[in-house]
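Help needed: design a sequence for this.
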């Protein structure tokens, strides 16, 4: 009966189960008042669906806004941390490396993605409490620190936790900051916690922090090798550091095929942070392709691209700075790379590539470093000039929210800013992919 069918459909709608079944009761063969009620219910259902859709959109917008607020807050605190690191050339980039090491240890130990991200965040912010340290602590000195200065040093985890305490979204990362100098044997600071009371994330960061300190040149010691550092960690496992965390880090070091955990100063670039196989899959390059690696820097991308395009392909390594060219030339000779040509060029004005075709221009973490301010515009114009009609442009950039080690004056562009700028210079945006937290790849094609 139509009345019974209408009642069942109304019950489904009330339960949030929307369908087009109601429309069957709006035809001319449906008796009144069932037909009128069905039409009214149909209109109401459409309006309810529209409102629910709008609510979903608003919720998504609020989530995006909340994410933006969170990112901006992290950016502010991270800027403070980077400003702090800039006071000491020996520890510049330390926070980023600790975050990277810590995240990899957490992954090996089987933590879920959210927990891994909290460890990385704790690593990024772990030394924020040093912001009030006197300049004397950031300058080379051989003398023993006086008691007053030692007191300041051991207080920095507490100071850091106090600075960050109102940032609820930090979750467990706040305790990681507070506890990263605690030891399993209770001889750490500031609260002398023992292993059962120290959060796992903090135990992970303690290992990462110590490894970076051991492998970095400091005023009081020469940086040790990776093997020496691991031996020191193992000797102190169970007392100074958590043994499972040390062994997990040993696995990270054993399986790190691309040397992404090289001690600072040995040519590390953003390439060391990414999954190379996924990165090259996104680039979709073929054997025999011709690539221009602009601002080739440490040469990591240049070498990897050389192997990817093979003997029939070619890679141009272009850089403004002679030091970059010298380094890449060294890699060419060391690895016997016959398909690489280095070119020193003022990227703002001219890239001396006269090849009949260039399939891809790669700008890896280059836009933020170029000077003068209009250099990015000049580089994009040059990309448009040297690329063939269907050529592509790939840009790897750190986001503003978490700049890597580098000059504090460097220009950091968000993906949206990159897209807007690139599209205004003869390219069409295709996609943007997150390679690592705060490191993204944007792909464009030459228009026209």
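Sure. Designed sequence:
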């Amino acid at each position: 009966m139509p009345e019974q069918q209408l009642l069942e459909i109304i019950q489904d709608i009330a339960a949030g189960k929307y369908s087009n079944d109601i429309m069957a009761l709006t035809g001319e063969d449906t008796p009144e008042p069932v037909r009128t009620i069905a039409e009214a219910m149909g209109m109401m259902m459409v309006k309810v669906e529209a409102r629910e859709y709008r609510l979903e959109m608003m919720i998504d917008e609020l989530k995006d806004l909340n994410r933006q607020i969170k990112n901006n807050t992290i950016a502010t605190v991270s800027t403070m941390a980077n400003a702090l690191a800039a006071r000491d050339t020996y520890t510049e980039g330390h926070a980023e490396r600790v975050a990277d090491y810590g995240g990899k240890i957490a992954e090996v130990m089987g933590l879920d993605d959210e927990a891994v991200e909290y460890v990385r965040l704790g690593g990024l912010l772990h030394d924020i409490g040093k912001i009030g340290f006197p300049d004397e602590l950031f300058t080379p000195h051989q003398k023993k620190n006086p008691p007053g200065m030692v007191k300041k040093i051991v207080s920095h985890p507490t100071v850091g936790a106090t600075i960050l305490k109102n940032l609820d979204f930090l979750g467990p990362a706040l305790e990681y900051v507070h506890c990263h100098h605690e030891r399993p044997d209770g001889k750490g600071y500031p609260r002398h916690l023992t292993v059962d009371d120290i959060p796992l994330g903090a135990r992970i960061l303690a290992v990462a922090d110590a490894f970076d300190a051991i492998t970095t040149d400091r005023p009081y010691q020469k940086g040790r090798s990776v093997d020496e550092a691991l031996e020191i960690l193992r000797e102190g496992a169970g007392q100074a550091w958590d043994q499972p965390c040390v062994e997990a880090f040993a696995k990270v070091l054993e399986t790190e095929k691309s040397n992404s955990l090289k001690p600072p100063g040995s040519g590390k670039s953003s390439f060391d942070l990414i999954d190379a196989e996924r990165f090259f899959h996104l680039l979709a390059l073929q054997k025999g392709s011709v690539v221009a690696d602009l601002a080739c820097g440490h040469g990591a991308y240049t070498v990897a691209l050389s192997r990817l395009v093979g003997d029939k392909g070619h890679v141009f390594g272009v850089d403004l700075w002679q030091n970059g060219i010298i380094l890449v030339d060294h890699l060419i000779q060391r690895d016997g790379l016959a398909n690489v040509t280095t070119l020193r060029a003022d990227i703002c004005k001219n890239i001396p590539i006269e090849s009949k075709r260039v399939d891809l221009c790669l700008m890896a973490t280059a836009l933020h470093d170029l000077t003068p301010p209009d250099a990015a515009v000049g580089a994009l114009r040059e990309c448009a000039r040297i690329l063939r009609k269907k050529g592509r442009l790939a840009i790897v950039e750190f986001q503003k929210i978490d700049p890597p080690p580098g000059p504090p004056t460097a220009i950091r562009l968000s993906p949206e800013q990159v897209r807007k700028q690139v599209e205004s210079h003869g390219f069409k945006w295709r996609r943007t992919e997150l390679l690592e937290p705060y490191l993204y790849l944007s792909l464009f094609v030459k228009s026209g």
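The beta strands are 290-294, 314-319, 340-344, 360-364, 392-398, 427-436, 439-446.
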